[in-house]
Amino acid sequence: MIKNQLKDKPINNILIRTLQPIGAKRDGFMSQLRGPSFKTASGIPMNTVLTLWHPRLTALASAALDEDGAHDLNHLHRVWRNAAIMLDEHREADALVVMAASYLHDLVNLPKNHPERHLASRKAALLARTQLAQQGFPPEKLAGVSHAIETHSFSAALRPDTIEAKIVQDADRIDALGAVGLARLFYTAGRMGSSLAHDTDPMALHRELDDRAYALDHIENKLAKLPGKMQTEAGKALAQARLSLLTSFRDSFINEWAVSPATP
C-alpha cells in the first residue's frame, strides 16, 4: 500500500529548504538521507518517507495554530531545521520521529502564564499520537514521537531518554536564543503585559528575578542556562553562539536604560 503511494513521487523543494539552516553543511544531512544506509525497514529511502510525511505534518500543525506569533509555522520549520543539524551528527536517530515531533510539539500551546502550562507538552503528545495514528503513521514510531513531544518542554522539566527526544528538545530551545529568540522573548512579554525591565534594578542585583513581570529578566532566569542544559554537542555549540548575541544585547540595553530621572 505505502509502496504504491511512494512510487514515482517527486522530491519537493520545501523539505530541502527547511533543512538548510544558516551555517549548516549544504549537503550534509540530505546527502546522507539519499545514501543506502538511510532506508526504512521496508527498504524505502528515508528521504522519500520524509517527503511523503512533511506536508501531512505541516497540515496537522497548521490546523492547531492560534494567534501566537512566537509559536507559528515558521517556528516549527526552524525547529526542524535545527534538528537537521543534529541529525547530521547522530545518524542512528530516526529522522521521521524527529520530524514528526518537531512539527507537532506545539499542538497544545498554552500561554507562559497559564496555570497548566507545565502540562501542555503532555497534552500535545497525547493529541499528536491520536492524530498520527489516524493518518496511518507507522505504529512502532508513535511512542518515540510522543516521548519527544512530552519531554521537549522547559516547563514540564522532564528528561528525554532517546536520542530523538534529545534532538527535538535541543532544536526547540535553540530557537529561544539568538536574534529570533530575542524577538520571540519580547513578543511573548508583550502578550503577557510584562514591563521591559525593572525601573531601577534591571540586572536584578538587589531583587529576585521575575521574568513574568520583566522581559529582560528572562535572559538570566532561563535563556542563559540553556547551553548548559543541551543534550547534544551540536546543540551546545549552537546554543552558546546564539546566547552571545543575547548577552551582548542585554549589556547594551542596560547601558541605555534610564535608572533615574534625567536632570535638567
Q: What do you see in this structure?
A:
With 264 residues, the chain is an all-alpha fold. It folds into two domains: 161 residues, no CATH class; 75 residues, Methane Monooxygenase Hydroxylase, Chain G, domain 1 (Up-down Bundle). Helices cover 56% and strands 0% of the residues. The longest helix is centred in the last third of the chain and has 24 residues. The protein is elongated and about 70 Å long. InterPro entries: HD/PDEase_dom, HD_domain. Pfam families: HD.
Question: Using DSSP, what is the number of strands?
Answer: 0
Strand content: under 5%
Strand pairing plus helix content: what structural class? mainly alpha
Give the rounded overall mean pLDDT: 84
Amino- and carboxy-terminal Cα gap: 79 Å
Which geometry do the CA atoms define? Answer: elongated
What is the percent of helical residues? 55-70%
What Rg do the Cα atoms give? 20 Å
Low-confidence stretches: 1-18, 20-27
- Taken in chain order, the helices and strands follow as HHHHHHHHHHHHH
Number of alpha- plus pi-helical segments: 13
- What profile does the largest beta sheet have? none
Number of self-contained structural domains: 2
Domain HD: 72-177
InterPro entries: HD/PDEase_dom, HD_domain
Pfam family, one: HD
